[in-house]
Design brief:
Strand 4, helix 3 and strand 5 form a beta-alpha-beta unit. The mean pLDDT is 93. The protein has one domain: Aminopeptidase (3-Layer(aba) Sandwich). Helix content is 25%, strand content 21%.
Length: 150
Amino acid sequence: MTAPYEISTDPARLDIPLIHHWLSTDAYWALDRPRPKTDAAIAASLNFGAYSTTTGAQLAYARLVTDHATFAWLCDVYVSPTARGQGLGTALATAVRDHCRPLGLRRILLATHDAHGVYAKVGFEPLAEPERWMALVMGAGQVPSVTQRL
C-alpha cells in the first residue's frame, strides 16, 4: 500500500500562496503576517512540504531555521484542516528530525501552544533548564540600535 502523502524539501514544490494563506489566516502565531514576511521567511529557511500522493496537492508545511551545524528552530508547522488527525503532523516532525540527524545539530527547539503531544512522539521534551533561556521580543518593524565605543 502506498502512503497517502510524501514529504519533500524541494523548494520548487512549495505552494507559497497556500502556505501564506494557511499561516496568515489560521495559525495563531502568524495571523495577519504580510505576504512579504512569509516570502522572506521561506527564502531563508529549510522548508518541508507534505503532499498528497494522489493529487500532488500540498497538505502540510514546516520551516526550519538552521545553521546546518549546531542549531535549528522548528517553526510554522501547519497541517491543512482536511488532513488533520491522520498522523501527518507527527510524520512531518519525524521527517524534520531525521533530515537533521546527519547534520550533528546540538539541539532543535520549537514553541507550541497546543501540540506538545505531537512533538513528544518524535522525542521533543520540555526544556531541562528553562531558567537558562531568554528571549528578545521585538515589535513589528523595530530595529535595534547598536552603538559600540572601544
